[in-house]
Design goal:
By secondary structure, this protein is of the alpha+beta class. The protein has 3 helices and 5 strands; from the N terminus they run βααββαββ. The protein has a 5-stranded antiparallel β-sheet with strand order 1-2-3-5-4, covered by helices on one side. The chain binds adenosine-5'-triphosphate and magnesium ion.
Length: 141
């Protein structure tokens, strides 16, 4: 029996961040992981940061349509999120925070809340992924 998998395409607009977060929480819920759990909150925050990056840094000006792809997949106890955008210029870099009120913290959150994350270049753009295992001592409230 195949493991659960969900995929969605979103427009490159800020509103897509909340939609993707809600979609991933619904997916986790269907896998028996309640929205109120720390695990679901951590994963939702990872989704938020990757989606925010996709709709800001990964946006291609002058284009429209559902160009951001997000998938969430369960393989055993490991949950994997992938966010793909079509911007060829620039790649995610784990950076130095830009001082008080500045940016540069999103991927640091992803690094700390996931077990591992990475980037895969695509023909046009890239896929940023993150994985987190349920039940590895990180699923308490
Ligand atoms: N999808 C992406 N496409 C292109 N560049 C990206 C992408 N995601 C991140 N980056 C690059 O990596 C940098 C670090 O990303 P990070 O999310 O840590 O910080 P930020 O987005 O600049 O600020 P913050 O997330 O704190 O609001 C970004 O400033 C950007 O240059
Ligand atoms: Mg960011």
């Amino acid at each position: 029996m195949p493991e659960p998998f969900a995929r969605c395409q979103y427009p490159t607009t800020p509103r897509s961040v909340a939609r993707a977060r809600a979609d991933s929480l619904a997916f986790l819920s269907s896998c028996g992981i309640g929205r109120e759990t720390g695990f679901a909150s951590d994963l939702a925050l990872v989704v938020s940061e990757l989606m925010t990056n996709a709709v800001t840094h990964g946006r291609v000006p002058g284009t429209s349509g559902r160009q951001i792809g997000m998938s969430i997949e369960k393989a055993g106890n490991v949950y994997r999120i992938e966010v793909r955008d079509t911007q060829r210029n620039g790649m995610p870099v784990l950076g130095e925070p830009n001082g008080l009120g500045g940016g540069g913290r999103g991927l640091l959150l992803v690094e700390s809340l996931s077990d591992k994350w990475g980037v895969r270049p695509e023909g046009a753009g890239k896929t940023v992924w993150a994985e987190k295992e349920f039940g590895a001592g990180n699923d308490c409230k």
